[in-house]
Specification:
Elements (H helix, E strand, L loop, with lengths): L45 E2 L2 E2 L39
Antiparallel strand pairs: 1-2
Amino acid sequence: MQPEFCAPQVSPTQQGPTQVSPTKQYVKTNVSNTEVKHIHPSHTTNVNKHMTTHKHYFPHTESVVNDIKEQHVMCGKPHHPCPPQGPCGC
């Protein structure tokens, strides 16, 4: 004997909690150029044929930033089975 199927009972639509995506972070780089003059005065004192030599060293460090670019290319449009509803497409 085959079972009889009753019409489905549909409950009212429930409102779930609002889902908020994480904030997208953007980095905008602005470059401005500044010229800074560096003045290195020097002085030599000779006293009784004794010379003082001041040696100036300029250590330098470097760092590297790897800037990686990525692109997404849309090769067509996604399929949308339902046509837009109304003038705003909603």
